[in-house]
Amino acid sequence: MKVTIDGQEIEVEAGTTILQAARMIGGESVPPAMCYYSKLKGSGGKCRCCLVEVAKGSDADPRPMPKLMASCVTGCMDGMEINSKNSDRVREARQSVTEFLLINHPLDCPICDQAGECDLQDLSFEHGKSKTRFIEEKRTFEPEDIGPNIQLHMNRCILCQRCVQVADQLTDKRVHGVLDRGDHANISTCISKAIDNEFSGNMIDVCPVGALTDKTFRFKSRVWFNKPYNAHRECTTPGCCGKTTVWMFGDEIQRVTGRKDVYHEVEDFICNECRFDHKDPADWVIEGPRKFDKDSVINQNNYTQKLDTVHIDTEEGILKGREQDRKKISMPAIPLDKEEQEEFNNGNL
Amino acid sequence: MSKKILLDKINVPGIKTYEVYRQHGGYASVEKAMKSMTPDEVVEEVKKSGLRGRGGAGFPAGMKWSFIDKKSGKPRHLVCNADESEPGTFKDRYLMEFIPHLLIEGMITSSFALGANRSYIYIRGEYMWVYKILERAIAEAKAAGWLGKNILGTGYDLELHVHCGAGAYICGEETALIESLEGKRGNPRIKPPFPAVSGLWANPTVVNNVETIAAVPWIVNNSGDDYAKIGVGRSTGTKLISASGHVKNPGVYEIELGLSVDEFMNSDEYLGGMSSSRPLKALVPGGSSVPILPADLIFKTANGEDRLMTYESLSDGGFATGSMLGSGGFIVYDDTACIVRNTWNFSRFYHHESCGQCTPCREGTGWLEKVLWRIENGQGREEDIDLLWSIQSKIEGNTICPLGDAASWPVAAAIRHFREEFEYHIRFPERIKNRNHFVAEPFDKVRHLVSKQTV
Amino acid sequence: MERKHYEQEINMTETLMNRINELLSHYPEDKKKSALLPVLHEVQDAHDNWMSIELMDKVAEILGILPIEVYEVATFYTMYNLKPIGKYMFEFCQTSCCCLRGTEDLMDYTCEKLGVGIGETTADGLFEVRGVECLGACGYAPMLQLGDFYKEHLTKEKIDQLIADCRDNKIILHDK
């Protein structure tokens, strides 16, 4: 089957979705995806970030589709013509979805462990505005402790439901899910039960935002201060590939994650033992540096580019404040003595 | 007196019971269909009738039936959508409460046409007493041999059960209804696949509204052509209208499609005019989701033609000057009603009923409600009207299911036709403090203030 | 979200179990989960109109599904109560069509008469007033739901009578 996305043609097999076809082409036409995850069955269709315009349905039925379609769950048809980045309608829809995702988001990136590898940050960078039109109070949730390894921060959640699918598809007894409904729907165990399945840590990797983060890495570092390396170990957990990325600060392993590809999806799922229990470099065979896309902030502190020593140009005597301020706060009622006046004039008060 | 198809026997004493219903010709369509017709012939009659889905979307029922996948060999199901929850609509409840066997007869005949051996009626949980009525009616029908194994010796088996929901408007959407019937949260599914291919338990399924199914016995007993003779153009047959609001005689009425809105509103046979001497201000003709019409567009279309109770005439002029027949929830407003408050009320409803699955609806419905609440309570800003317009336009068309559209349309229509009322709320917050602010001082009396005020 | 825990005495009577088994028979053998919504209604009605975590766990066990699957459903639908509530719950429909006919004033009247706010239970645990969304009785407004039944065309006098009837134990909540 032949499909055309933003004027670029590609041959695909029947059953391929528009998003998959776009990823085969690569580049800027690839729609952003916040909920679709190729390794999780039944994912996608919810976040509405990947909407595209189908300008021609197929060779057999060339009518355009009236509504924008979620590319992650819409199958390709032979002769289909799709506009992604080329369409104003699509860009506008993605901007709308981004705005909707952000109105209730806490925007606490400065203290969020996901910052630097957050899909919502990327989405906002591409499709967001720096102004908000939302003046109401933001929605918040009572915190819930879901166990010793995983930190749940519900206020940041975008309800992609990937973590529920991980629990469904990788573990045998799911204990968390989506509770309540509408804009109060939340990820919860309902009874604050520890999520302790051997593969539960993958919830962290699939979470596109900072709603599920690694408790053992909490507030330890910013991700761009770490150097990521590919590493592996002989893992005895059935179903675990043992291939990971270890995030190092000096000689210390601060965090272990799955190996994420260019769409931030893990290549393979890993077990909790690999993720949480082996922070000693001696436990791992380090393969070499893990590469990231060229615009990623993670590259800022890595080994692929040489960075100059940072020199902060501090103004001489900055702590003493600016000249005009010093004048403003000087008190004529209590004049300085002569020596003090001289010091003051020299800016050394 | 116009033709009655669904409610012609509603006044027969005891029609609720099996015996009386049977004495008055009940279950004849089952006998006729099973003894003298093939399933495909029944489908053909329904197609010929032009019967359109009565739940709101108006999709031709016969065509929907013909989409069901018969090739895969999987078991098929018919599910009746009795989750009636669209504000302004209460017709299905009336039908089920007062003539339950009509629905059951329709379910048996329709299931036979579709080759379904296991069918369900999904009723909203709040209609618990109607649920019991249906359960008892099913038991009666079963005892009389209309359900179970080898019905009428034809070899056709059918099991019919009622299933109750538990308070979720979204379960009126057919795929959410199926999810709910499977014992899950009522999250609409992503389509395709459509239920006709993969519905209940991944089997081919048809979901039809109560009123649609209740029309089938008459079509089978008479003919599709006879049904198509009633009504106007593509709006064939009769329709139940639920009338509420400021009218003299609220209630459920069966009308022939093609009746004029004027006659329906003002004749004594139907609504009998307004409930008081206050003038008509606005009309929602098809349930809360459809656009509201201002007084000057109710009885006449923008072209000056008579507005009729048909799918086509009510939507004449598109959303600019028209609305929709929808589910037939006919809500009438006199000049004591505040359109801003009413729009806020509807927005609160959609905010409350959003399932939370997809972003634009989950976040957008709440945002709409909050902004409308501020305006209604005297904290609106001039830019809020454009903000509302923008939010609704960003929800519409971008969601998984039609709830997003349903939440957007009433807001858009209110701004389109009643913008001045929004401006009045924003510019004169002290005059709208009382929630019944238009009772003593209707908007027409203060409209001149809005134009004087420049901002 | 952290939830408060409430204790409840669980009593799966024979009548209740028989009804549950009857409901289960409405669905294919391997689709027991489908019976979840009707079963929850029955279980709730038999337990003072609310369900604790333990009670929901019991339902999960009967249907052979995970407890979280029950919690997900019970929190989605508004008719399930997950904490103790007043015996007579006056659920006023507060959607537009009912408001046009004076629901809001009637709710204020009821709250004042009972001395509670909306969503609150009276001190004796007998009454609770709630505003709910459209109940499908728009033409018979104002109205409220009490147990399995609707009370329609309400007036202040009818509310007074209803409250008196509840106090006199004359009201049947469920049709079993």
Beta-strand proportion of chain C: 5-15%
User: What's the gyration radius of chain B in Å?
Assistant: 23 Å
Count of the domains of chain B: 3
User: Residue share in helices of chain B?
Assistant: 40-55%
What's the overall geometry of chain C? elongated
Q: Oligomeric status of the shown chains?
A: heterotrimer
Q: How would you sum up the major sheet of chain B?
A: 5 strands, mixed
The CATH topology of the largest domain in chain C comes to Glutaredoxin
Element order, helices and strands of chain C?
A: HHHHEHHEEEH
Strand order of the largest sheet of chain B: 3-4-2-1-5
Instruction: Write out the strand line-up for the largest beta sheet of chain C, numbering strands in chain order.
Output: 2-1-3-4
Catalogue the unreliable spans of chain B. none
Number of strands of chain B: 12
What is the helix content of chain C?
25-40%
- Global morphology of chain B: globular
Structural class of chain B: alpha/beta
- Label the CATH architecture of the largest domain in chain C: 3-Layer(aba) Sandwich
Distance between the termini of chain C: 35 Å
Task: Write structural notes for this entry.
The complex is a heterotrimer of chains A (349), B (455) and C (176). Chain A has helices at 18-25, 88-103, 119-127, 162-170, 202-206, 272-277, 323-329, 338-345, and strands at 2-5, 8-11, 51-56, 69-70, 80-83, 150-152, 177-179, 186-188, 212-214, 227-232, 243-249, 252-257, 285-289. Chain A has four domains: 2-96, Ubiquitin-like (UB roll) (Roll), CATH 3.10.20; 106-219, 2-Layer Sandwich (Alpha-Beta Plaits), CATH 3.30.70; 225-311, no CATH class; 314-349, no CATH class. In chain A, the strands form four sheets. In chain A, strands 2-1-5-3-4 form a five-stranded mixed β-sheet, with helices on both faces. The longest helix of chain A has 16 residues, at 88-103. Chain A is an alpha+beta fold and 349 residues long. With 455 residues, chain B is an alpha/beta fold. Chain B has three domains: 18-229, Rossmann fold (3-Layer(aba) Sandwich), CATH 3.40.50; 232-334, Ubiquitin-like (UB roll) (Roll), CATH 3.10.20; 339-452, NADH-ubiquinone oxidoreductase 51kDa subunit, iron-sulphur binding domain (de novo design (two linked rop proteins), Up-down Bundle), CATH 1.20.1440. Helix content of chain B is 43%, strand content 13%. Chain B has 19 helices and twelve strands. In chain B, helix 14 (339-353) runs antiparallel to helix 17 and helix 15 packs parallel to helix 17 (403-427). The termini of chain B are far apart. The mean pLDDT of chain B is 96. Chain C folds into two domains: 14-76, NADH-quinone oxidoreductase subunit E (Arc Repressor Mutant, subunit A); 88-167, Glutaredoxin (3-Layer(aba) Sandwich), CATH 3.40.30. In chain C, helix 1 packs antiparallel against helix 2 (36-45), helix 2 (36-45) packs across helix 3 and helix 3 (53-63) crosses helix 4 (67-76). By secondary structure, chain C is of the alpha+beta class. Chain C is elongated and about 50 Å long. At the A-B interface, helix 2 of A face helix 14, helix 15 and helix 16 of B.
